[in-house]
Amino acid sequence: DNFAILMAGGVGSRFWPVSTQKHPKQFRDLLGAGETLIQTTFRRLTSFVPAENIYILTNEEYHDLVQEQLKEVNDEQIVLEPVMRNTAPAVLLAALKIRKRNENAVMIMAPSDHWIEDESAFKNDVQLAFETCRREDKIVTLGIKPTFPNTGYGYIQFENNSEEKVRPVKKFTEKPSLEKAREFLRKGDHLWNAGIFIWNADFIIRSFSRNQPELFSLFEKGNSVFNTSEESDFIAANYELATDISIDYAILEKEENIYVIPATFDWNDLGTWGSLYNEVEKDMEENAVLNARVLAKDASGNIISSNKNKVVVVEGLQDFIIVDEEEVLLLVPKEKEQDIKEIRNKVQKKF
Ligand code: GDD
Ligand code: MG
pLDDT tens digit string along 11-39? Predict the structure, then answer.
């Protein structure tokens, strides 16, 4: 059967002050779509995974938000992490739970903060990956044609002179230096890792046992209690002992059986205000307006967001991020969007 794990434990600090520790971006309607990012992701997954086979992996703190926003999900499908340990431990735990339910489970790991334009093209690529992993022990990634040397992504060096839809990966490099990223773009045989993976549960568990033996043995000893009433005690006692590492460093950089499907859909990681700006409607002056009524003069290229449909008057301002929230008003040039994480930390210390 098809299963899914939906990753929803991040804090989204570069989207502050809309994304906060208490209420991160995946639980917000960032795109003005009439639904939150996690609701969009869940709906997208239900076109090839039955709703009862979709697990939500998140921090304990967000239990109520998940229950509120995903009414179709039972409590047994919510995997709660007592502390943040990045994605690898959460993935292993969920894979063990899923394999216990179904030995032949094939699963997709899906981040909750992506923009995907063409859902039917996405579905086609994913279905091909599911078919592949049902038959074979492989990790299948989805690769996006890179457009600039982004150092926040993983890079997939793939077999370029082949017509196969599922290609062998030569090397996976997570978050390279700028110099490396530039080189990868020049070479033309690298794709961005979309952060969406497909594998069969048994194979990913075996990959953990080879590539992350400590983490594997920590969680594997809980196998007898998974999916029972004793599971939460096991997690409470053991989760914080897990290595703090992402799936990309823990498995993708190490495993040999990795394949890539060059994606046929448009994709964007909604990681910063600039990435959001690219995917929403703009007015005549190229201002992106979210939940606000705007009067603009000599103002262009701005992102203007308000949390209560306020009237915002902007004159003589170009390429700014303007975010009005209950307790914070943020004005930062778009080109400084990477600083927002740091600004957020400073504000939290100072006030
Ligand atoms: N459950 C859980 N627990 N989820 C988490 C945790 C955690 O501790 N930390 C992060 N996540 C979730 C985030 O909410 C997001 O949906 C997803 O896991 C990916 O985490 P990010 O922190 O956004 O990863 P990244 O953007 O730095 O890098 C990954 O995604 C890129 C594409 O968007 C990597 O896979 C890169 O290789 C890839 O290019
Ligand atoms: Mg991300």
Answer: 999 999 999 999 999 999 988 889 999 99
Separation of alpha carbons 304 and 323, rounded Å: 6
- Interval between CA 58 and ligand 1 midpoint (Å): 11
Taking only the tens place, the pLDDT of each residue in 128-154 is 999 999 999 999 999 999 999 999 999
28, 36, 246: which to mutate for ligand 1, most atoms within 8 A of CB? 246
* Pocket lined around ligand 1, Cβ cut-off 6 Å: 7-10, 26, 57-58, 81, 84-87, 90, 111-113, 152-154, 174, 192-195, 248, 269, 271
Question: To 10 degrees, what angle do helices 201-211 and 213-220 make?
Answer: 120
Q: Measured between alpha carbons, how far is residue 289 from residues 20, 39, 73, 300, 323 in Å?
A: 20, 22, 33, 11, 10
* Amino acid 347: pLDDT: 95
Beta strand 2-7 pairing with 106-111: parallel
316: left (phi over 0), alpha (psi -120 to 50) or beta: left
ipTM value, please give it.
0.99
Q: Looking at ligand 1, which residue's alpha carbon is closest to its atom 19?
A: 111
Q: In what order do the strands lie in the sheet with 329-333?
A: 288-297, 303-315, 320-324, 329-333
Question: What is the Å distance from ligand 2's center to 63 Cα?
Answer: 21
Q: How do residues 44-56 score in pLDDT, each as one tens digit?
A: 999 999 999 999 9
**Nearest CA, atom 39, ligand 1:** 153
Q: How confident is the model at residue 308 (pLDDT cuts 50, 70, 90)?
A: confident
Relative orientation angle of helices 87-101 and 201-211, to the nearest 10 degrees: 140
DSSP element (H, E) containing 43: helix 37-45
DSSP annotation string for 183-225 = HHHHHS-EEEEEEEEEEEHHHHHHHHHHH-HHHHHHHHTTTTT
Prediction pTM value: 0.94
